[in-house]
Every structure is written in structure tokens, then in C-alpha cells.
Write a structure and sequence with these properties.
Blueprint lengths: L5 H6 L7 E6 L5 E9 L3 H4 L1 E6 L2 E6 L16 E4 L2 E5 L3 H10 L4 H5 L14 E9 L2 E12 L2 E12 L6 E6 L16 E4 L4 H11 L5 E10 L4 E8 L5
Antiparallel strand pairs: 1-2, 1-10, 2-12, 3-4, 5-6, 6-7, 7-8, 8-9, 10-11, 12-13
């Protein structure tokens, strides 16, 4: 399968919603993570990413304008030992708690379902990266409704134990804009990973729809030292 150009995929999709990219740099020196959020409503757009405890949290850009914190205020990224968890909701905490008890990624997500935001039923997307002995392995998941049926949850899990240099996987909540918004479907998309962290960050941010993009987090993890280097871009300044 041909690898897609991430910038082109983003630039031609007005509303992929929230998205996770995981992969490996061409030189095989760094694991790559990108997580972005978008918003159509004023409440969804009123957010920033803030570093916390080795990961990030979402916060209101202007607390006085926060309408409803449910589903938009959470920790998208948390770290436990050599594992990095990335998700689009509070299932980050569920995964973290299960890993801390040696119970596993899939087992944690089988206790969760899609978001209760009828009629969209926004999927929960998640990724788990592990760095050990200079090697990267990762898993991804999506929990989604059965074609908009709020009574039926479909759970999909993907395991990438041997990532290929210069390649990544991209999964997002929505296939495109709409009303209701159609959920992502199919396997995580094959995408090319290119450039250093600043080039990659700029490429992703500039490719997102300008009206709808809100925040972007990028992390490169040095596979030899397991040392992260982060970039955060927020469209809206915190008041």
C-alpha cells in the first residue's frame, strides 16, 4: 500500500476532528507522535494544550467562556514508565490505570464506548507507544458506533510491533465534515513521516483547516535514551 502524504490528507479534509499520528522517522532514531484537536463550536474552540506531568492536558483558553467541560477537558497524553498513551478523551486515564495494574490496552478499552454526543457519537481513538531496547512498538484503537447506531459499539484494535522507518499511521475521529458528522472507518491510514520535529510540526499545523484547528501536540522520542522533545501549538492564547 502506498503511503499517503499527511499534509495533503489534512489539507483536503475540512474537518477530520481529532487525530493521532504515530510513526518512526526515516533515520529510525525517533518515535513520532502528533495529536491535534479541531472545533466547530465556540465551546470546542475555547481550548489550549498545557504540559503536565510528562504529558499534556486540555484547558479552557478563557475559563469565563467555558460552557460545558465534559468531553473537551481531559488529559490527551500521559506517560507510565516506557509507555506513552495518546487519546482523544478521558479514556487516557482508563488505559493508564489498567496499565498500572498490568491489565493491558485492549482490556481497558473494552470497558469504554464512543462518546455520548448524539447524533455524532464521536469515536474514541487511542494509541499506546512503548520504547524498549532502542525499538518502538505501538498499538491503536477506535471505538465507534455501528453506522450511527447509538445502541451498538464496534471496537477495533491494531498492533504495530515492527514499525517501518519513515512510515506512520493516522487515525481521526471523523471521515469528513457533515451533519451528523460521519465517523472514521477503515484501518488507520498509512502516511509518510518526514522532517525534524520543527518541520513536521509546521507541516501538520499549516495543513489543518484554519477555521477549525485549535491545538497541536508533537512529540519526538529519542529511541536510544527514551528522551522526549515536545512542541505545542495553540491557536488561542490562554487568558
Amino acid at each position: 500500500m502506498e503511503n499517503l502524504v499527511l499534509a495533503a490528507e489534512l489539507a483536503t479534509n475540512e474537518y477530520p476532528g481529532r487525530g493521532i499520528v504515530v510513526g518512526l522517522t526515516p533515520d529510525e532514531k525517533n518515535a513520532v507522535i502528533a495529536y491535534f484537536i479541531m472545533g466547530r463550536s465556540s465551546n470546542s474552540r475555547n481550548r489550549v494544550f498545557t504540559p503536565k506531568d510528562g504529558g499534556i492536558i486540555t484547558e479552557a483558553a478563557d475559563a469565563s467562556k467555558l460552557e460545558d467541560p465534559s468531553l473537551i477537558i481531559y488529559a490527551p497524553v500521559r506517560v507510565l514508565d516506557n509507555a506513552t498513551i495518546v487519546t482523544n478523551g478521558d479514556q487516557t486515564d482508563t488505559i493508564y490505570d489498567y496499565l498500572a495494574k498490568d491489565k493491558g490496552f485492549a482490556k481497558a478499552l473494552r470497558t469504554r464506548t464512543f462518546e455520548p454526543d448524539e447524533p455524532n457519537f464521536t469515536p474514541r481513538i487511542s494509541a499506546l507507544l512503548k520504547v524498549a531496547s532502542g525499538k518502538l512498538s505501538y498499538k491503536m484503537s477506535i471505538l465507534k458506533s455501528d453506522n450511527g447506531n447509538g445502541a451498538s459499539c464496534e471496537r477495533f484494535f491494531y498492533d504495530y510491533s515492527q514499525p517501518v522507518a519513515g512510515e506512520g499511521r493516522f487515525i481521526h475521529t471523523y471521515k469528513c465534515d457533515g451533519n451528523p458528522i460521519p465517523s472514521f472507518y477503515g484501518e488507520p491510514e498509512h502516511v509518510k513521516i518526514t522532517g525534524d520535529i520543527d518541520t513536521f510540526t509546521k507541516t501538520v499545523w499549516n495543513s489543518l483547516n484554519d477555521a477549525n484547528k485549535v491545538s497541536l501536540f508533537v512529540r519526538y522520542i529519542d529511541l536510544k535514551t527514551n528522551t522526549p522533545t515536545d512542541r505545542i501549538v495553540n491557536k488561542y492564547a490562554k487568558v
